[in-house]
Amino acid sequence: MVAAAIVNSLRPIQQLDPDSPEGVVQSFLVAIDEEQFESAHQLLSSGAQADCSASDLAIDQPAMSRVVVDDVTEFDDETLVRLEATVMDVDPIDPSTYETTLEFTLIDEGGALRIDRLSYPYFCGFN
Question: Looking at residue 109, what DSSP letter applies?
Answer without folding.
Answer: E
